[in-house]
User: What shape does this take?
Amino acid sequence: KAGPVIEVEEGGEAARYRVDRVEEAGARVLEAQRVEPEAYVAPPDDDDETSLWTGFAAAAPLEVVFLDLPLLTGDEVEHAPHLAAYGAPWPGSAAVYKSPDGNGYLLSGLLDAPAVMGELVNDLPAAAPGLYDRGPAVEVKLYGGALASVTEVALLSGANAAAVGDGDTWEVFQFREADIVGEDTYALSMRLRGQAGTDGVMPDVWPAGSRFVLLSVGLSQPDFAATERGLSRVWRVGPSTKPVDDDVYGEETRTFDGVGLRPYAPVHFAVSEDAGGHTVTWVRRTRVDGDNWAGLDVPLGETSEAYFVRVVDAGAVVREETVSAPSWTYPATERAADGVTGAFTVEGAQISDRFGPGAYGKVDINE
Assistant: This one.
């Protein structure tokens, strides 16, 4: 029960104190707490347009997406994943914790802003890289945030880069036009597909429901050692104001390959015949500083030049070899030994000493 309130004069003004304890010990000693009546006045009614009362919003689980992405600017930690999260309301910041076994979590990073993310409303079929994808607009339903159109100059300078994927595999693409067609829904057109070497992993179609993440807002790389690539880790992400064991935290167990280290697929495959055999050549690309046109060739990007070549016949790999130059010969005698008598495919991938074979390019040989 609250004690009585007394009023005393302090500096010419009346001050009110709530008496909590009185002690009689020759002299009367009071323990009191100063109170302000205004602190107990109810907030303005909800119907009052001048009210600043916003009410209490309990912390809610966040929508979290992990992305294993290629290098986009070159400033990223090449072996580390990216992380995006969204919440409404946003808790101010989100904490990212990591553990090898679900015990002894350590803080691995903070997300200071929500990401712009959502899902595809309709299918997005594959398209050729290096050219505008002028197919039908793909619609994206955002959880929150907004998208906007950009000029062609801005697009070619890297604007409106986004990732579409299923959580394990991601294609990076860009879009020039973003037209709002419904609540939090945008139609994206004039797209550049398979950016940053992701043409090598683009499927025939990204189905409706695939994840969409804009790669310019709220994206962060948590602390992740190079030695953790390929190892399972338990991640917990939630409001930074809550402890890691709070129920509001979401939990995922994930393994990352370090796609920033993955070589791009070779391109421009060509075939020539010689004495019944075939010689296949190609042109390598690079994941490092490939946009500089000043040099005679793009940087190698790897410790040494090497390629993994395989022959696929009727869906089965019948031969695998490693070469040190962008050329490989398949003699008629080896083809006969492999039992290849009709059409077949030659696939090639550049090798990284840290990642292994990257994405594959290919050429079909019809005979």
